[in-house]
C-alpha cells in the first residue's frame, strides 16, 4: 500500500519540530501544512491547534515529527519520537533529513486497537534508482513514471507480539511491500489556486477525488498561515508566510476607501431604480420604447452590474468573486476607453466637422435612393414590370424620401448641439457611446426601415394570398380552430373568383418581390452595421478581463489539474515528486467566466432567418409570428 505525503517546499529546511496537517479521509494520504519549532509546550500546541481548527473548519492535527539535526541536537530525534505519546494518533510520521541530502527518511509508528503504541517502525526506503519521467494528472489524466521493480513489503518474524518493534525495509524485487511517496508542492500557489473540474480525458477517479481535498485543505487553512516570526506568540511555525505576511499598502488603502464608495453608489443606484420603477415610466409606450433603445438596455445592464459589485454581501464563493472582479475591471476599462473617445472628439473641433458632414451625407443617401427608385420605376435589368403598380409604389416611396429630407434639413441647425451633448455620454463608458451610435443610426435610417416594412408587408400578403388560393384549387382550406389543412368543397363561383385573384396576384408578384428584395438588402446592410456595434458592446460587457489577466500573469490561480515530475531519487530515501499546476486553457477561461448579457444567446437560427426572409416576415424579435393567418 502506498502512503502519499504532500509536503510543502517551504518546510524543506525548517528547524526540528512537529508536523501539523490533516489526514485525508478515505485515502492513505496526509497533507503537511506547517512545522511547529522546538522549543514548545505541548499544552500550548494543543490549544493552538484547537483554535485553528475552529477558525478554519479543517480537522487539523499533529501528524508526526520533523527532524533536521544540527550541532548540539543529537538526541532531538529520540525526543521527538517520544512526543507520540503526548499527541496520540493512529499513525505517527517521523520524518528526518540529513544535511547535504535532498531526500527524506521516513518512519511510521502505528497503534493497536486499544490505542497502545506498537512501536511498529516502518523504515521505508527505496533500494535503487527509478526511472525519471513526468506524468500529468487532473486535467491531463496521465500518470508519472516511477522507479520500476520496486515494491515495499512487510517482513514479519515468526511470532508477532505487542510492544515488539517490527521493521519493514524496501528492497528491489521481492514480494509486495509498503511504499512512501513524498509529493512536494508550493504552498502559496496551491492555496491561491482554484481547481476546475476536468472536461476532457479519462482521469483516475481516485486522484480526482483526492486532489480537490488537498487543494481545499490548503485553501481553508489560511488562518494557520497568519502567524509569522514577528508575532509575539509562544508557538513558532514554518509555512509560506512565516518570514512575513504577504500584503500590499495599495490594496489595504483600496479596501478602506471601497466601503464608503460602495455605500454612496448603492444609495445612488437605489434612487435611480426607484425612479425607473415609477408609474410614469412604466406605461406601455414608454416601456416598449425603452426596451428597444440600445442605450436604455445598456443603462439597465450597467445598473445591474453596479448593484452586483457594490453589494454589501462579501463574495465567499469563487464564482461570485470572479464575477464581481470581471465586472469591475470591465467597467473600469469601459470608462477609460470612453474618456479617451471624449478627449479625441472634443479636440480640433471634431464635433463641428462631424455635424457639417452629417447633413450632406444624409442628402447623398436620399439622392441615391431617389435614383434607385427611378431605376425601379423603369425597366430594371430588362425585366417587364406591372407599370401601374410600379408607378404607385415608386411615387409612394419617393414621397417618403422627400418627407425625410425635409425633416433632416429642419433638424440641421440643432445637429451640432445634439452631438455635443451626446458625446458627453461617452464619459459613462465606450459602451454607452456605441449604444447611442446604434440608436442614432436607427433614427437616421428610419426611412429605409419604413420602406422595408411596407415592402415586406405587401410581399407577405401576396405570398400568403397565393398559398391560400392554391389550396382552393386543390379543394383544401386552412382550419383556424384545429390549426391544420382540411378538405373542402367549393362551388363554381368561388372557384372562378379564386382563379381571377390567383392570376392577378401571380402577375403582380414579380413587382412586389423586386421592391421587397431591394429594400430588404438595404435594411440588412443597416442591421449588419448595428449588429457589429452590438457585438462590440457585448464583447466589452461580457469579456472576462480579470480572469484573462490572471491566466496570463498568474496562471496558477486558475488550475485545470496538476502534473508530477521526479524531484529526487536517492538510494535509501522514498521517491520525491514535484507537483506543478496545469493552468486552465484560455478558451476554457473565456467560456467559464464570461458574463452573460442580452446578446449572448441567438434568438433565431440561420434556417429560421432565411425562412422569414423568404416569406416576408419581419426579422425583429418583437414581431414573432405565433399563429398562421389565412
Rg calc: 38 Å
**Fraction in helix:** 40-55%
Alpha-carbon distance between the termini?
A: 78 Å
Strand content: 5-15%
Question: What is the number of helices?
Answer: 17
Give the overall form.
elongated
Low confidence ranges: 119-177, 621-630
Number of strands: 17
Structural class based on helices, strands and sheet pairing? alpha/beta
The average pLDDT score comes to 78
Taking the sheet with the most strands, its summary is: 13 strands, mixed
Would you kindly provide a written description of the structure presented here, covering whatever features stand out?
There is one protein chain. The protein is of the alpha/beta class and 630 residues long. Helix content is 49%, strand content 15%. The protein is built from 17 helices and 17 strands. The strands form three sheets. Strands 1, 2, 3, 4, 5, 6, 7, 8, 11, 12, 13, 16 and 17 form a 13-stranded mixed beta sheet that branches. A two-stranded antiparallel sheet has the order 9-10. Strands 14-15 form a two-stranded antiparallel ribbon. α2 links the parallel β4 and β5. α5 packs across α7, α8 crosses α12 and α12 runs antiparallel to α14. The radius of gyration is 38 Å and the shape is elongated.
Task: Give short descriptive properties of this protein.
single chain, 630 residues, 13-stranded mixed β-sheet, two-stranded antiparallel sheet, 17 strands, disordered C terminus
What is shown here, in short?
The chain is 49% helix and 15% strand. The chain contains 17 helices and 17 strands.
Give a topology summary.
Layout: E1 2-8, E2 17-23, E3 29-37, H1 42-56, E4 61-67, H2 76-82, E5 91-96, E6 105-110, E7 122-124, E8 134-137, E9 150-151, E10 171-172, E11 179-185, H3 187-192, E12 194-195, H4 205-220, E13 237-238, H5 249-276, H6 284-292, H7 294-309, H8 318-345, H9 350-376, H10 387-411, H11 415-423, H12 430-444, H13 446-473, E14 476-479, E15 484-487, H14 492-542, H15 545-553, E16 558-568, E17 575-583, H16 586-593, H17 606-615
Helix pairs in contact: 5-7, 7-8, 7-12, 8-12, 9-10, 9-11, 12-14, 13-14
